[in-house]
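User: Could you walk me through two proteins back to back? I'd like the raw sequence and the structure tokens for each, with a short line separating them so I can tell where one ends and the next begins.

Assistant: Of course. Protein one, sequence then structure:
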Amino acid sequence: MISEYGRKDCKHEWRYCPDWYVEECIPTVCIRCGALGCVCDADDSLGGYENRLPREVFFGEQQKKDANINGQWINPYVKGDGSFDLSKYYIIENITDLDGNTRTDGRYPQRIGRRFKFCMEPQIGSCMYLEYCPRNGERYMGVLRTSVVQGSQLTITGGEVITTLNSIYYLEPEMSVE
């Protein structure tokens, strides 16, 4: 069903912003059904930039990846048979400072163990954006915006270690969906 704002409505506890066309309000895609929604209506407990994506993410390369085929939004994180494509999901295993000490300040401890998908692959010199995904019954949604990425390397297990200006993120691929 198309709403009065031109979006496909979705029944997955997703709220829509009536001002999605305003520059401050950035549209995104529901991870469960592919419906077009709005990041600013996600859980606002994070506040600040962590709940917003830059406009070019969804009006540039990302829009090509989330292809709109015959008027249908295609969710790139769900396979054709309806099952999740686990190769696209990661878990934050640990976050340390640049000296290797686990971050215990601010919201860092709450981020460990969360499931997310990359909004765009991390690029050196740019911020990294991770879109949180619900898991284990948690209704947590939103976007984590890191500081500028300084480097990235793959691990033996298929994960990634991403170094930013002030933190090191240890990311592991998710092996199962609860």
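----
Protein two, same layout:
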Amino acid sequence: MLQNSSQIINTSVISIIFDESQQNEILYFASSGGMLQIIDLSNKKPTQQINLISLAYVWNFSTNQLELYLAFTKDQGNQIQIIQNYIITFCSFQLNIYSLSDEISLVTYIKRKLSNDQITDYQIINNNIILIFFIQKYEVFLLQNYSSSIIFQQQFDYPRYLGSIYIPETNILKLYGLHQLGVFENNLSISLYDNDEQFDCSTIISDSDISQLNRKISNISPKQNMIYTTLGSSTTQSSGGALYFENIGSTQLYFEGQTKVIQNQALIGGGLRIFQTNSGKIILPSGFPFENNIKQNYADIFGDNCATYLQKAIIQNFNPQDSQNNYLFTFHLDNSNIPISYKKNYFSQIDINQFQSGGQLSLKIFLVDNYNRYLSFSLQKLLNDQYPEDISNELKSIQITINNLNTKQTQLIGERILNYNQYDSDSQSFTLTGLEIQGVLSSLQYFSIESSIQANSQIQQPILLSISFRECQLGEIIEEQNNKIMSCRFCQEGKYSLVDPNFLFKQSQIAQSKIQNQCNNCPNSAIECQGSFISLKNGYWRQNNQTDEIVECDPQIGSCQSENPSSINYCTEGYIGPICQQCDNIGQVWKGKRYQQSMKSGHCQECYQVTSYNMNITASKLNLLQGSQQTDVNENGYSEILKSAKKRVLSSPHSPNNQSSFRKHTQSNFKLLSFNYNTEDYNTNLKNDFIIEANKNQISEEVEAKNQKIYNFYAKSSALNSKQLNI
């Protein structure tokens, strides 16, 4: 404890700094009472005690009085610091900077008096630059000759210091920080501020111009004449090709009819730009954008003739057509379709239907000016610092954010904030590709798309995004995120699922069912699997795309050719039915062609088409003949045979104990059915192809007898097959 003439000062140590940079080893003790103790360690004795508070005028705006003693608590030790060649002390609204030399003296102090100007942090860079962070902004000061001058100010909510890079060759300082909506970066040329040399501004006016002005002036009395002006053919590597106005407030701009601003060029606002340093909606002058006076100008980035700021966002769908999340997208330019409860807070709307929960949202977002021209700049030039500092800062400050309005029923995962890094110079848009959205299945949820351009644009309302989540589909698995939010996970390559995901999820919740809620591994009989898609290898057959009951075909025949793009129902040309062992005798599948069994058992060949003969087979016999065996061919018949066989196999005391054995039994039955159907002795393809018109009467009885024999065979064959299925 120390005591002065008036009262005791609390000198509890809150900071100890060891300085080896000087000739002697010096130790500094900074106390909470604003006292600085300096100790020479080499001589082991104190050399100086300084009351830092007495060196500065400190006014406390909270209590509205002079601050005699800066009494900081121990957990505020960072409020008295020795940084580089300075000692820093600060309270909520004032920061004092002392030089740390042979004689400690006050360099400067920086104070504020508003509640939002409360100091939250500070940094000293390169021994002459100090950054001070407030609640709603940060400021950069240059320390020169025992004084400080502000060289930069940026409005942000709750800014925080991330880091900095000082480039001594160019005297440029790069600042990086955080604020409430994201990350900021600023580049400052210190050379512009640390040079005391003054430059005079001058304008060269030709003799002819002076003569003309003199003539005009001489005619002012007793009347006034207007001097009309043409501003043209000017190029500016910044904003406002001919005219630039900053912070005009409600000031009006008037252009007479014959005043023209034409054929000028700039990065922003080819003819004119109105800019303001503080956030808020600009009050546009009457007549803006002065189309009769300002025209035929060009801007590289936006605002060909007149510009203030970017005005609104136009959004397009960027979802690939082959995407699993094949949602429906509609963008409304106005708020006519917005629900009443949201209408007053949103400018336009996006409707998305049939959205997969857990799917990716892919959008292209275009920012447009008052002419509806897209923002267009070179990302490479921006990254290489080839734009002027003010233009670069403006482009880098642009942010687009997606927010969910109901956080209990929706969830956003991934890239929800876009900035210049997501800008595509070719399409002139910000691309959203990495945002996963989850929500309650079969529900309608709302989100907002907001942009930093709203702060200064004439349209200061965000876009309402409505998403209707669908149920999970075949080929997907339901994953529970919480008690309400579910996601539909698509079975990726090498996996598949052919079960209704809702049924599978509910069954997996029952412990006794022992059913797992997961995708199945691709079987060895398939080339690839994904979602609900199974691509079979040659030599395998299944009834349809909705079953994973896969049967191996006869490799000797080779009729199962599912890899062949011209195959039908997994069968090569001429073959039909289970495991592709039947010939298409009547052209049922292979339209226009009929096939019969060749001399080689199990193989089909195309029938000769020489002469068509109308066989005398009655319709009733033909229908009965076809129906007796059709059960083996069509899908319903296959299903019934498969179910019946499986039921009997599993109920038999000698039944196989695994799926593989069941498939072997089923395969044998299919082969037997196919063999009986195609036996060469009773081929349904009568030799009518070789019967000519003259011999019709002679063979009619023979044909009739042959038909009756075929009919009897099929009736017998059908009964035999049914009997053989009874295992």
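The CA atoms of residues 526 and 536 lie 4 Å apart.

Let me know if you want the two compared in more detail.
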